[in-house]
Amino acid sequence: MVRLWLQRVLLLDEQPDPLVFILGKRIPSLKNPMQKLVNVLLTGARCAIAGKWKGTHPPSEMDFLERVRFIRRMEYLTALCNDTVDSFDRIWSAWDSTQIV
């Protein structure tokens, strides 16, 4: 599920190394803003897994998307406080283009 979202958002044709998903290893072909977005998506997936850790069902795609939306909202508020909205837009523009408003 997370791999499909990475491919959809970043338009990646290659299969990322499993260490990218497990340890957050950098993808060599990505520039810094896209790598930050990959880190956020993987963090959202890890948080969704941790939230359902003792349950009998794995986290759903909606759980994952809710976590990513929460992280995005917090990063937006941080960008407003620090006056770095331009940097925020560079990082999240690929994600925003895939979301239905």
Question: How do the helices and strands line up, and which of them pair or pack?
Answer:
Blueprint: H1 2-10, H2 18-23, H3 32-51, H4 61-82, H5 85-98
Helix pairs in contact: 1-3, 3-4, 3-5, 4-5
Task: Please name the defining characteristics of this protein.
5 helices
First CA to last CA: what distance? Answer: 21 Å
Number of domains: 1
Mean pLDDT: 88
Radius of gyration of CA atoms, rounded to a whole number? 14 Å
Number of helices: 5
**Helicity, in percent?**
over 70%
SSE series:
HHHHH
Shape field = globular
**Low-confidence runs of at least 5 consecutive residues:** none
Question: How many strand elements?
Answer: 0
Structural class: mainly alpha
Main β-sheet, in a few words? none
Strand content: under 5%
Describe the 3D structure.
By secondary structure, the chain is mainly alpha-helical. The protein has helices spanning 2-10, 18-23, 32-51, 61-82, 85-98. The chain is globular.
